[in-house]
Amino acid sequence: METLNVVCMNLNPVVLAIPMYFILMGLELGFEAITRRKTYRFNDAITNINTGVLSQLTGTFFKLFKVGIYVVIFEQFAFFHLADNWISFIVLFILFDLCYYWEHRMAHSVNLFWGGHSVHHQSEDYNLSVALRQSSTAFIWGFPFYLPLALMGFDPVQFVIIGGLNLLYQFWIHTEHINKLPKWFEAVLNTPSHHRVHHGRDPKYIDKNYAGVFIIWDRLFGTFKQEEERPHYGITTPLKSWNPVYANFAHYIDLFATVKQARNVGDGVKILFNKPGWQPDYMGGYIAPQKVAVGYRKYDTLNTTFINLYVFFQFVGALLVGSYFLFNVDAFSIAGKTLMVSWVIGTTIMFGYLFETNKWWLSLLEVVRLLCLPMLLFFLVKDGMELPFWSVGLGAVFGGLSLLIFLTLDKRQKVEMLAK
Length: 420
Prior knowledge:
- The chain is mostly helical.
- The chain folds into 2 domains: 2-178, no CATH class; 301-417.
- It contains 20 helices and 2 strands.
- It has helices at 2-7, 13-16, 18-35, 42-59, 63-77, 86-109, 111-121, 128-131, 138-142, 147-151, 156-169, 183-188, 192-199, 216-221, 244-260, 265-273, 305-327, 334-356, 361-382, 390-407, and strands at residues 301-303, 415-417.
- Strands 1-2 form a two-stranded antiparallel sheet.
- Helix 4 packs antiparallel against helix 18, helix 6 (86-109) crosses helix 11 (156-169) and helix 18 runs antiparallel to helix 19.
């Protein structure tokens, strides 16, 4: 299993590119400030990024599962082992995208699989932060589509790198600020125009343009749609929440509630594996996507500037903690990894609560979360992590200062909900 140990090192280009994401988002925000064309909302962008953080953090626990099966098939069942060179790299890059096309298409075509992929489509905005909005469960349904590449003998390290590059390519196409590109480019490659169509919830745009890199797959398999007017973004039943954990389970909750209404096992299975919206006739039949109503308003919450600044301050802190973890994940024990991921997940949930509610228990949860930070750092030092001991004091200062700021907020002004 030497190959598996090599592959499970930090080879993930998606993690290595974290600084690039924020530089490009900063440039996009700067461009919007100049052009006065706004595509970002603070609460939506924070939730998008937090959902991506959750995906990467939880993915550290399933790295062996996701990559390990590929490695076993490669080592034990591959028809042959291809040389690791630039020719195999190019061939694998193309074939990986073909596998991605079919994985992506099935994620839209099978109700159960849609539970994983729907997370990426939940945002009603379209900007670079949406590219980071990734699911924590989609890999369960998606990884089998790539196993033929292991049988064909493509090296696991090459596979992991190309998988990351495929996802990186898709980052820049999540923008409204690039219109049409040269015809030859639009004919072969996925572009912002093509991908805007894919994110549209308008009936004519739904289930179109599945490609990751090469739009030729959609042209070849009959799923291509040219952008006409700009789409309405999001899913047909809006999430209406800023909670990134709920975002990962919302469709599954609704899906299994529907399955419970089935009169027999066969219909329950059909609900799971038919396309989203399918139901037996006695439950009302197929629910077709509807046109977006004229005057429709996106889900939103109106937060005070104070709350937004507080969340931003905490977001930066949590992002630094999460990034440190992702870049040094192999140095953590299982206990340290579990506690670190739990704290960051709890932090992202707290942001959703701060955006959405002003319940009495909110202050209690925030006090507990902030007190846990220096305790977490103290545990990591005692657990053998090579952290300077003063980091515990820094965590205590950050937590104490944050707690002081939070408790001085006027709770009556924390959240003003718009009509939902």
